[in-house]
Amino acid sequence: MNQDRLQNAFQYVRENFFPRWDRSKQWIINLDHSLASTGLCDFREKKIAISRLPVSENKLLLIIIHEICHSYTMKVRKFYRNTHGKAWQKRMLTIAELAKKKSNLDLHEMIIQHIEEYQKSEILKASDIYERMEDILMDSYYESHEFLAYKTIVQIIASEIGVSGNELIECYKKFQDEYKKAKERIFQTFDKDNKFFQHHQN
Questions:
Q1: N or C: which end of the chain has fewer CB within 10 A?
Q2: pLDDT class of 1 with cuts at 50, 70, 90
Q3: pLDDT cut 90: percent of the chain above it
Q4: What confidence category does residue 119 fall into, taking pLDDT thresholds of 50, 70 and 90?
Q5: What distance in Å separates the CA atoms of residue 139 and residue 133, rounded to the nearest whole number?
Q6: Dihedral through CA 171, CA 21, CA 11, CA 162, nearest 10?
Q7: CA-CA distance, 194 to 85, in Å (whole number)?
Q8: 0.70 exceeded by the pTM?
Q9: Which residues contact 58 (CB under 8 A, 6 or more apart)?
Q10: b/e code 68-77 from CB counts within 10 Å (16+ = b)
Q11: Cα 17 vs. chain centroid, distance in angstroms?
């Protein structure tokens, strides 16, 4: 049942929004509950995967549109990049206008809001992201005297700004280095505080 719904939605999007895309029908779509993100576009394998089916039909269409737009913009020189930059946003905006022409105003509005969410995340400076990471690490260390794992902090920050973990790391190249530096700073701060406290207790 879920597979039928997914395939029908995929076919609907192809016919109504991307009639010239993949005319040889090489691309496939399937469900993959192991995905950490909502969807994935694999350019090399010509495959789109979705982690779960949303209740809303327009939400499902949005996810499929999102991933197909990646297939247009992923290939950059000899590399394959899955980003939400200006080329992807422009493609999404084109589909939003097409949805409006087809009188699907709800889908049009959803796509516009979706684009704006990524535009807001792009405004964040690297320093803002790294500062937020250090705040979270400090709070967790203060409570448990243990640091959150790297993968955990990646997922927390990614979720807050509305991107996947891989997209966060790709956008903020020094994230792992800054994670290590932040841990060292926090550890040194707490170590000094503990020594100061112990000295005045004796």
A1: C
A2: confident
A3: 52
A4: confident
A5: 10
A6: 10
A7: 46
A8: no
A9: 104, 106, 107, 110
A10: bbbbbbbeee
A11: 23
